[in-house]
Fold this sequence. Notes:
Oligomer: single chain
Distance between the termini: 12 Å
Strand order of the largest sheet: 1-2-3-4-5-6-7-8
Largest sheet: 8 strands, parallel, barrel
Bound molecules: phosphoenolpyruvate
Amino acid sequence: MKNLIVANWKLNPSTQKEAKALFQAVKKKAKVKNVEVVICPPFAWLAEGRRQAAEGGFILGAQNCFFEEKGAFTGEISVLMLKDLKIDYVILGHSERRKYFNETDEIVNKKIKKVLSANLKPILCIGETDEERQAGKKSEVLEKQITGGLKGVLRENAKTVVIAYEPVWAIGTGNNCSVDETMSSVLFIRKIISKIYNREIADNMRILYGGSVKSENSGSYIKDAGANGLLVGGASLNAEEFIKIVKSAE
Length: 250
Ligand code: PEP
């Protein structure tokens, strides 16, 4: 199985010119053996991303989508639109969506099912807050987010789901999770998946780590913590640094 490195550009960059330059800089050097590189730009830059992804070097992903296909839902984007743009992956349930847009496990679950029905691959983000971690509730939170997010998802569809373990306290803080703690969380996530589906699906599911990943720490999550890749926020906006991260996953 190839390692998966996902760039989450969030609400950046602000101009099409900058987005174009960033796509180009990554594209030139992102072809690395055994690594699948996915760039998830804001919706506004997806069409530019499509043009550039067509030349190879990276795959295109989206940062969100709605659970209805069409109709009176102002400001939303549908899986049909994403499919038409040949998007492969969709990030769902990111902690920023949960926090600022009140996305619950139920909403995330509806989105996951919709994405799977369109044959796109969901990246389900889960992770505990600092408060929950301090209160010893990490396992409980992760289990709830996994079972809630995957409720009703059939075994044959579960195979295409990617899980991103992103402790909320590690996102954008510079305070990345230790390799040991990540390893135990990855094992715990596989245990839950095994309980819901079976051992084979759990062993083959791609589980990513995300939270203040930099080129200095990226390789260890894959080599030592058992993660199958990374979800990279801030560091993905610097092409040189992002390429170093991609190379560390080779
Ligand atoms: C993220 O947004 O998913 C993320 C991990 O951000 P950062 O790498 O900036 O912590």
